[in-house]
Design brief:
Length: 122
């Protein structure tokens, strides 16, 4: 089901791109005539086939996107993948951690075990 929806979505994307590229630019930007009766703020009101096709394909693509999102559960296939098993194995420690002895600071130990530093110049 998901594969069929993806194929249809790709076809709709290609058709939408082609229809948008075929259309003539109608706006004209700020240089267009605002006083014409067939224009509203510089954009012509047209009901031609290409404009209706663009709207239909855009809405179809949105609906297909939602349908694909609903049909795919948990972001992928139901079975565990090898990658997911490797991530689970790495994230779980294999042996309990042992506590390491606390590090000793220099000069903080017993005086008998340490040798005094030779400060005499030779």
């Amino acid at each position: 089901m998901t594969i069929l929806l993806l194929v249809i979505a790709v076809i709709v994307c290609i058709l939408l791109g082609l229809i948008v590229l075929i259309q003539n630019p109608k706006g004209g930007g700020l240089a267009s005539n605002f006083s014409a009766s067939s224009q509203l703020m510089g954009v012509q009101k047209t009901g031609d086939f290409l404009e209706k096709g663009t709207w239909i394909l855009a809405i179809t693509l949105m609906v297909l996107s939602l349908a694909i999102n609903v049909s795919v559960k948990n972001g992928g296939p139901a079975g565990d993948s090898d990658l997911q098993r490797q991530i689970d194995n790495v994230s779980k420690p294999s042996a309990p951690a042992t506590t390491a002895p606390a590090p000793t600071l220099p000069g903080a130990g017993s005086g008998a075990a340490q040798k005094p530093a030779d400060t005499a110049k030779k």
